[in-house]
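queue> pop job 88
queue> type: inverse folding (structure -> sequence)
queue> payload:
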């Protein structure tokens, strides 16, 4: 089963060209904003060869304002939803379902002078079509 980051990160990077898109936030010397981070935080295996439901933590970090950071989160979420809606196939696999399990939540940012908005999304994952 493909890693969810292998499917999502290239598409987010293409859709958000002015944004740093990562699966692990870089250290302070290599970090730039705005930043979107995608991290798998669990899921439910359905069929180990053909279908998986992976839950991601989608985080947006920004330096301009809470509203800009929330809009960045919503833009990233919309790109992911578009992948499901359009059944976009990538070399790593594709997403077949989308469940927004927590919505956009403002949280304190661990990084100085930044805003953070995060949400949890459960995504159905399939490997690439043969």
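queue> result:
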């Amino acid at each position: 089963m493909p890693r969810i980051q292998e499917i999502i990160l290239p598409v987010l990077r293409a859709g958000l060209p002015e944004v740093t898109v990562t699966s692990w936030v870089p250290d302070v010397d290599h970090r730039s904003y705005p930043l979107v981070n995608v991290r798998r935080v669990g899921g439910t295996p359905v069929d180990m060869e053909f279908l998986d439901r992976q839950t991601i933590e989608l985080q947006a970090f920004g330096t301009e304002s809470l509203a800009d950071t929330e809009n960045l989160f919503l833009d990233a979420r919309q790109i992911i939803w578009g992948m499901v809606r359009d059944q976009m196939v990538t070399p790593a696999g594709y997403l077949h379902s989308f469940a927004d399990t927590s919505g956009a939540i403002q949280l304190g940012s661990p990084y100085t002078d930044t805003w953070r908005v995060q949400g949890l999304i459960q995504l159905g994952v399939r490997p690439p079509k043969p």
